[in-house]
Amino acid sequence: MSARWNLTKDGVVDDMTVSKKSLAAVAALSVAAGGFAPIAAAAPDRATEPAQQGAIVVGPGSPLRMPFPSNHKVEGRHVGNPMCSLAVPGTVVDQNGQSHRVIMTAGPCLKAEDPETKEQLTGKYFIPTGQGDVLLGQDGLATDVVPSEEEFAGVTSPAELFNLMFNSGDYGFIEVSDGIRTTSSSQSVDEFGQVHGEPVQIVGIQDRRTLAPLEISFDNAGQPVCTDGSRTGRGCGFQLFRVRNGIWALAPIDHGDSGGLAFDPETREAIGINSMGLGPLSRFQPADVALEEAYGIPDG
Predict the structure, then answer these.
(1) Which of 18, 76, 127, 170 is the most buried (most CB within 10 A)?
(2) CB-based burial, 202-229: b 16+ in 10 Å, e otherwise
(3) Distance (Å, rounded) from C-alpha 268 to C-alpha 192?
(4) What DSSP designation does 84 have?
(5) Lowest mean pLDDT among 107-121, 213-227, 278-292
């Protein structure tokens, strides 16, 4: 299948721009996988609330709920189910010219297992709002990054162990339902639809040289990064180093922020998808690598 990825802006599809040159592709769609956390409306581009516009709007920093089959709604809300955040939306145009609206998030946000009941997610994903949960979409494509026993058994060095545990792909894509508007304006929104922070219009996706599986680069050291997530809100810091599927930084993210957006506040480019936090350290899945791997887009 031939595919082209376009960035969504103000509910309209615009060609996506990147630091080096536009990403265009010939590919089959396949997706790999991050982290989610269970905890107890989307950001519009303007001050007008989505309810006033007559539509739900989602974008970077919006919340995401993923219910398990046995957990029913309480007053329209999937209370007690896992919660994540959303990153950059866009449109895939296939070889037949048909458009498919999708939005990025972290991998386990779409493929998680209840640690007690071993239930799998329903495959339907919801936007939590103050008025109840609204269906965002379904058929999200992702794979779990938790290494298998066989993979651990094949590790022969500390470098391979690091690569296995912290450098696996952490991304997923949800196909957005009709009636849901998407925007590339990044703005943290909590599960009650309350907006936190000023909107930042994301203008493209930063494209760096894709690294080999065990390669480490410090070419991003000291560069700024800000994140938007539904749990923590907006936080900023600076980057430290990067590996193929991880940009490591001193920037705050917490449970429930997984799947949200990391961006450069100076260029307003999407850097990556919130993946995990280890104390003061945070890891982001590079957005350019996610697109390259998911849609077969060549690097650069």
Answers:
(1) 170
(2) bbbbbbbebbeeeeeeeebeebbbbbbb
(3) 26
(4) E
(5) 107-121
Q: How many residues make up the chain in this entry?
A: 300
Cα–Cα distance measured from residue 258 to residue 227, given in angstroms and rounded to the nearest whole number: 10
SS (H, E, C) 247-290: EEEECCCCCCCCCCEEECCCCCEEEEEEEEEECCEEEEEEHHHH
| pTM over 0.90, yes/no | no
Interval 247-271 mean pLDDT: 92
Neighbours of 267 (CB within 10 A): 15
Residue 236 confidence (pLDDT) above 90: yes
In angstroms, how far is CA 11 from the centroid of its own chain? 18
Whether 34 and 106 have beta carbons less than 8 Å apart is answered as yes
Residue that the structure tokens 């997984």 belong to: 258
Closest C-alpha to 240, from 226, 224, 227: 224
Give the pLDDT score at 261: 96
Residue 138: C-alpha distances to residues 5, 24, 134, 246 (Å): 19, 25, 12, 26
Residue found under tokens 């493209």:
204
Give 38's strand partners.
Answer: 82
Q: What angle do CA 251, 67, 129 make, to 5 degrees?
A: 65
Q: Residue 7 phi/psi, 5° resolution?
A: -85, 140
> Alpha helices of 29-169 — where are they, by DSSP H?
50-53, 149-153, 158-166
11 contacts 56 by C-beta, under 8 angstroms: no
Token code pair at residue 230? 């539904």
Q: d(Cα 195, Cα 187) in Å, to the nearest integer?
A: 7
- List helix spans (H) across the chain: 50-53, 149-153, 158-166, 287-295
